[in-house]
Amino acid sequence: MSTDTATDRLDVSDGFDVHDYRSKLKLLRQTGDSMTLENRAELGCPACDRPFERLLVSEGESLTVDSPPAGRLCVVRTDDRTLLVAH
């Protein structure tokens, strides 16, 4: 998938690799099995196609969010990751 235009969306059809989007997502925080990223290029959500603000990627079996943002949340599951997308 090309990630050269602002209308692109995250492609999770064959898993998710953050390195495919490194120029469009800014790493905000990383812990042992999760990372929080900011969408700097108005990439579309893999669940609803709308641009999103933040992306939480987790490889863990469970996920806890301390203070979820107000607004739309989408959850996408790949074979080895869970993506929580905050709009």
Walkthrough of the structure:
It is a single chain. The chain is mainly beta. The protein has one domain (18-62, 69-86). Helix content is 0%, strand content 31%. The chain has no helices and 5 strands. Strands 1-2-3-5-4 form a 5-stranded antiparallel sheet, with no helix packed on it. The model is unreliable at 1-6 (pLDDT under 50). This is Flagella cluster protein. It comes from Candidatus Halobonum tyrrellensis G22.
What is this entry, summarized?
With 87 residues, the chain is mainly beta. Helices cover 0% and strands 31% of the residues.
Note the topology.
Elements: E1 25-30, E2 34-39, E3 54-58, E4 73-77, E5 82-86
Antiparallel strand pairs: 1-2, 2-3, 3-5, 4-5
Rg, Cα atoms, Å: 12 Å
C-alpha termini separation: 22 Å
If helices are DSSP runs of H or I spanning 4 or more residues, what is the number of helices? 0
Average pLDDT rating: 87
What characteristic shape results from the CA principal axes? globular
Q: Output the strand order for the largest sheet.
A: 1-2-3-5-4
The amount of beta strand, in percent, is: 25-35%
Give the strand tally: 5
SSE order, one letter for each helix or strand:
EEEEE
Keywords for this entry:
single chain, 87 residues, mainly beta, 5-stranded antiparallel sheet, globular, Flagella cluster protein, DUF7385
